Predict the structure.
Amino acid sequence: MSFIDCIKGCFNSEELSAAEDYRAVLFGDKAIYLERVKSIVSYTDEEVYLSLKKGGLKIKGKGLYIKKYCAEDVAVCGNIKGIERV
Amino acid sequence: MRKHKGNRESLTGLKTTFEVQGSNLESLLKIAKNKGIALFDVKKLQNKRMLVTVNFKESKNFFAIAKELCYNIKKIRDKGKTYPLYRLIKSFGLIVGAVLFFIAQTLSSDVVLSVSYLGDGSIYKNSVQEYLSRNGVHKYSRFSKTDLAMLEDGILASHKNLSFASCKKEGNRLVVELVLAKDDTNGFQGDKYELICTEDGVVESIKVYRGTALVKVGDAVKKGDKLVDGVTSLKDQTVKINVLAVLSLSVERQFTFEGGDGMEEMAKMLAEQSLYGEEIIDVVTDKEQSGERFIYKVTVKIRRIISVG
């Protein structure tokens, strides 16, 4: 069980699990790690647009680059200004 | 997150960085990901270019995919903590070659290919060469079987006219440096109150530390001339003092040989041989025809050094 799963367990909410279509862990404003990402729709050094199972996610910032991209995991590094669900 | 543990571990492994150029680079990323290729450090550059790093073992696949999709792709570099090890393995032949070269160099540099002589004591070259041969030092002998320090001592012990001998290994060459011993009394008779010349010559240099010089550089002196006098003036009085002086004299020796045409070098060599052990400054050979024969006049200048005191 991952750390996020532990946290989730604390809430003890089954609905929360059912609604979960992606997971994101933010490391300050320097990096974000996402799971269950479908694909990268577009990518510039100011915006990374990710496609999820339901909808998409925009990561905005400066000097963004994809540190890791494999299977359904994406790690984005750089100066992250914000995350927007679309 | 744990399902990609293998890929995470390979973060510390060997990776290859590519530069890819083309439109819709995201599509390439998606296809590569779907093919199970882990992508790292994806950085977009200008002009639709992108840097992307993949695990070394997947680099061929990624390259093939990019080529198939008509992207311009070129390998930039390999990197990772294990990269030096990878290079070592990859260049195994080179390493073996380098080791073999080192061994060959070591073995070959152990062989004496030539002996060269330096210093004014090289006039004893022939004699020293004989000594070296007697002690097993000759062409193709081994440096490792030669004790250079013992050779130096032996050369000095067997040649009283040498004051210094040094044997050094320079690659495949044995360099023997020889310095002549300066004979303080050779050619001159002096006592502590004066210095008398016993041989005709020209003064090359003179240093008088105590006493009065009676000649200067360039003066021609004859046998019996007083060169340095042990008197000096002190408060209007003439006092006698011990002489302390060093003088270098150029002395000429002439030799005449008779022989056929073209024997200048032979005459020169014979003259030098006659002055074996002397410090030769210059050799001039004149040739005169006398009937069918030739007369060779060889003028040899030698240096004599004296010190008294």
